[in-house]
Design a protein that fits this description.
The structure holds two protein chains of two kinds. In chain A, about 30% of the residues lie in helices and about 20% in strands. Chain A has 13 helices and 18 strands. In chain A, strand 3, helix 3 and strand 4 form a beta-alpha-beta unit. In chain A, helix 2 crosses helix 5, helix 6 runs parallel beside helix 7 and helix 10 packs parallel to helix 13. Chain A starts with a helix and ends in an 18-residue tail after the last helix. By secondary structure, chain B is an alpha/beta fold. Helix content of chain B is about 35%, strand content about 15%. Chain B is built from ten helices and seven strands. Chain B is globular and about 55 Å long. Classes of the chains: A alpha/beta, B alpha/beta. The interface between A and B is large, with 50 and 44 residues. The site of iron/sulfur cluster has 12 residues of chain A, from helix 9.
């Protein structure tokens, strides 16, 4: 019987011929990621358990991305300790503040390979399914266990196949597809299960779009959000000096369920406060005034996302009652966006530019909301209290919808806005 | 099954919460790197401001679907443990929250139908070995889903840190995790 991607990866990592959904296995982890919010706790747990080394120092990536640059002396002290930990445990892959968001860096720097089993101290670790890795978030105690032993227990998940057909209309992006799915199956619609994406639409989908969708797999409860590593993925990695073979499910893999999404029928989508699955077509909430618009995060802070925003904003100006905050997902993204005239166009349009990193996405700093304020953002969570006051409202949407909304100061269907045709963009 | 677990009954007052209680409600990102004593003051503040100041050791948190959804922050489970919550009983638990609770030794129980059987403040008792919650006001018992054996063993050990300590002690012998859990 054929295996899904999740089953193939867990079987290999557990040293087994095959595994079945519902089974528990102990599997060898290929790559582990820790970031600044949790790294020092992981290392202190590791020390307190009596470990002075990690199982493989070349398989651990440490990233300072959440609180950058340090907003408080306490955050600076956490970073200081993290740098000491990285030195003490002699980790070889460390990205200091300003390099970028962990989930952007892992693919961008060629650390993710198709078929890998990857864990991170961050729920959005599912992002790396974009390159065919079984990647998922774990807590600090479990990460200490992984760093000590290189192993962890997993329940083999059932797999839900999501078939993407058709091509989206202009103004409709991959974010709209995943928001639509969240609205359709609910915030726990794929609880404990793996999503595996397939279908004709993948051919026209870059790694950025796949990252957006795999990133939000966790927002429907999924353990993994997997894309087959096809020619697009192989080329993406080749550009980064990493040679890999294509990887996908067995042709006769068995799925628990199959969902089909026809992209050509899709309107831009918006998730309403305070859950990611309260999704409506943009037309249902159009004209709601917004105090803040945020473009960034590991979901939608890549150069293609900033470019879409610039297509709506270049040569124009953000509405005077609205603040537009832009945070590139990495330094490389910022550099490209600079060179291509995207950041200059956004700055000229009135954007407030943040350093590469998580920015206000998780409510740590940089652009928090007052009670009663409304924000529309390209990030992935709109829980009460996610971005400052629990009495603020967060709407989630695509870069196009957020840019169009920033322009008019109200939630706006990007299809009603004429693009400024890449004005001054290269 | 270890005998420590068989006698494991917790009890207290029930605190009711709805669906999709997120890690941002349990442990707001704004206090991400604050000390535990400060963070627990804000636990579930936006959902029920009385909870953190009034919860007593042994009290049982009874919630709806997808409890603990969102971030991987273990501190969400840690905060409940630090406040003395005896057990989280929910219609369903978000994946990472479930793992984290088990990893730090916070008892959890998935118990479909539990919210209909309990009112705010009811005295309740949870028998962890039997995976059952009993409402002591009404006498009604609700059967939950027993945790898989592997998770029960980790919980019985007090979480993964004690297991890791054992491993460190046994490192010279090269014995591994599978041996330790006997599964
Ligand atoms: S950008 Fe937001 S969702 Fe992504 S890792 Fe940072 S805080 Fe988490």
């Amino acid at each position: 019987m054929g295996l899904t991607m999740a089953e193939k990866i867990l079987a290999r990592a557990a040293g087994r011929e095959e595994v079945a959904p519902g089974e528990f296995v102990v599997a060898a982890v290929d790559l582990a990621m820790v970031h600044d919010i949790f790294a020092t706790r992981v290392f202190s747990l590791l020390r307190s358990a009596g470990f002075r080394r990690v199982w493989d120092r070349t398989r651990v990536v440490a990233v300072i991305d959440h609180l950058v640059p340090a907003p408080t002396a306490a955050a600076a002290a956490v970073h200081q300790q993290m740098r000491r930990d990285v030195a003490e445990f002699a980790l070889t892959r460390f990205y200091d503040a300003g390099t970028g968001i962990c989930h952007q860096l892992l693919p961008e720097r060629g650390h993710v390979r198709p078929g890998m089993l990857l864990v991170g101290t961050d729920s959005h670790t599912t992002t790396h399914g974009a390159l065919g890795a079984a990647a998922t978030g774990i807590g600090t105690t479990e990460m200490a266990y992984v760093l000590a032993t290189g192993r962890l227990w997993f329940r083999v998940p059932e797999t839900v196949r999501v078939v993407l057909t058709g091509a989206p209309d202009p103004g409709v992006g991959w974010k709209d597809v995943i928001l639509h799915l969240a609205g359709r199956i609910g915030a726990d619609g794929a609880q404990y299960r793996a999503l595996e994406f397939s279908g004709g639409a993948l051919a026209g989908m870059g790694i950025g779009g796949r990252m957006t969708m795999a990133n939000m797999a966790v927002e429907v409860g999924a353990k993994f959000g997997l894309f087959p590593a096809d020619a697009v993925a192989v080329d993406y990695l080749a550009e980064r000096g990493v040679e890999v073979l294509p990887f996908g499910p067995d042709p006769d893999a068995v799925y628990q369920e199959t969902l089909t999404v026809d992209l050509s029928a899709l309107e831009p989508q918006v998730a309403l406060p305070h859950t990611v699955d309260r999704v409506r077509p943009v037309s249902a909430v159009a004209d709601l005034p917004v105090d803040q618009a945020f473009i960034g995060s590991c979901t939608n802070g890549r150069v293609e996302d900033l470019e879409v925003a610039a297509q709506y904003l270049a040569g124009r100006h953000v509405h005077p009652h609205t603040r537009l905050i832009v945070a590139p997902a990495s330094r490389a993204v910022a550099q490209q966006a600079m060179e291509r005239g995207i950041l200059p166009a956004l700055l000229a349009a009135g954007a407030l530019l943040l350093p590469p990193g998580c920015g206000p996405c998780f409510g740590g700093h940089q652009g928090l909301l007052a009670p009663g304020e409304r924000c529309i953002g390209t990030h992935n969570r709109n829980f009460a209290g996610r971005m400052g006051s629990p009495a603020a409202e967060i709407y989630l949407a695509s870069p196009a919808t957020v840019a169009a909304s920033a322009l008019y100061g109200r939630i706006t269907d990007p299809r009603t806005v004429e693009r400024s045709a890449g004005h001054a963009l290269r | 099954m270890p005998s420590a677990e068989a006698s494991h009954v917790v009890g207290g007052r029930a605190w009711l919460f709805g669906d999709d209680i997120s890690t941002d409600l349990l442990d707001p990102g704004e206090y991400a790197i604050a000390p535990l004593q400060e963070r627990v003051r804000h636990t579930l503040e936006a959902a029920n401001p009385r909870f953190a100041p009034e919860v007593r050791p042994g009290d049982v948190l009874v919630a709806g679907r997808n409890f603990g959804c969102g971030s991987s922050r273990e501190t969400a489970a840690e905060a409940l443990q630090a406040l003395g919550v005896g057990c989280v009983v929910a219609e369903s638990l978000a994946r990472i929250f479930l793992r984290n609770a088990v990893a730090i030794g916070l008892p959890v129980l998935v118990c479909p139908g539990v919210r209909e059987a309990v009112r705010e403040g009811d005295p309740v008792e949870v028998d962890l070995a039997a995976a059952r919650l009993t409402n002591l006001r009404t006498g009604r018992a609700v059967q939950g889903n027993p945790l898989p054996p592997l998770m029960r063993e980790i919980l019985a050990a007090g979480g993964m840190l004690p297991l890791l300590r054992q491993l460190a002690a046994q490192a010279a012998e090269g014995r591994g995790w599978v041996d330790d859990l006997g599964s």
